[in-house]
Amino acid sequence: MVDSFIKNVREFISRNHLLAGGERVIVGLSGGADSVALLRVLHVLGIDCLAAHCNFHLRGEESMRDEKFCRDLCSRLDIELVTADFDVDSRCKSTGESVEMACRGLRYEWWESMIREGRGRVVAVGHHREDNTETFFLNLLRGSGITGLKGMLPKTVSVIRPLLECTKEEILAYLESLGQDYVTDSSNLSDDYKRNRLRNTVLPEIEHNFPGAMDAIARSIDYLRDNYSLYDDYRDLLRRKYVGKDGAIDLGLLITSEKNARMVLFEILSEAGINMTQVDNILATMDSDGTCISSGRLFRSRAVCYLLDRGRLMPYDADTENGEESVVADLDTPPLQCRRMSREEFDRLLSERRLDRGALYLDSRVMEGNPTFELRPWRKGDRMRPFGMRGSRLVSDMLSDAKYSLAQKLRVKLLTRNSEILWVIGLRTSALFAVGKGTEEVLEVMYETE
Q1: What's 150's DSSP letter?
Q2: What is the crossing angle of helices 168-178 and 2-15, to 10°?
């Protein structure tokens, strides 16, 4: 039993390219049967292991018992152990997560921090075949496509699952053959959690009524995982076709080119946290011929924000919306550049039509009185007296006259002096401190875009 178990795990690691060889592996060690078997088999395979134990202090003395067990086990095996204590209650209050999700988040964040510190290359966890079946059913009951129904993968970014093809029965038999004990988490026996109800009640009943069902479901998950691999490759092709270098998605092209445009758009956006309801809302802004009928809407997930602008769905930094505060500016400090020129040089450049159309030209007296210059986004109600025109105009009207798209409007910045607008950068200059008959020295101000 020992040799066959070790052989199967070794072959699974090799077949799925879980380890490159010679790298240190952080092993998530709870003290339960699965993690103990994982640590023992990796140790036998000669893999350099660092055991990591989380103490969530949720079960009183039982939590301390688990930590002591892990310390004793690692001491006997001469494996380094690191532990961490967590305040789950504070996490739940601050995030609104369930206890189960809070523990998972704390655990994975700690592991990732150790990887960043160079304490290991990957984290190995003890997920096995039945865990994968439970994950399949949880996702099925929530409502999921192939992404959720494929179950867990042998490797996900920095997490590996060397026991994913092993059954619980095989794990327990391996430990018994070694004479290795383990601890039992009493919360696993309770049906308070959905996963526990599946494990303790639902799945045994299915197996009782449909003998061999667990083996058949495991095979189906394997097929779905292979299907997902093919599906993922095709999704990458679609992403390259419809997503530009700037991250914008051409919705018009997608809608008119794809028979299953809804699912294609969902698969492109799902990794960013956009759900199917939001996809439906995005597509509702477009006609079937690819014409945008509702430009200017924002679509958000926890991770990203997209702006719909004339049929293009563009990644948008919500922090740059017009509620952004003003930034004090120096005319000669990036992103601004300033140089002084004589009135004669200015007149000569003007006559030769060599003045830079993208620059602002000011009478140098603009610097008198130690004024405050600021860069800020334009806001509703902003007014300016444009150079060469009588009276003032709303900045919003000037942007509309210039046929700026919503995305362009949101990127427009103003240069102000003591709160008065000198320049709608890239569009119009103000009549304030314009070069006139009394000007002796001229400032040429440039704005460098990123």
Answers
A1: T
A2: 130
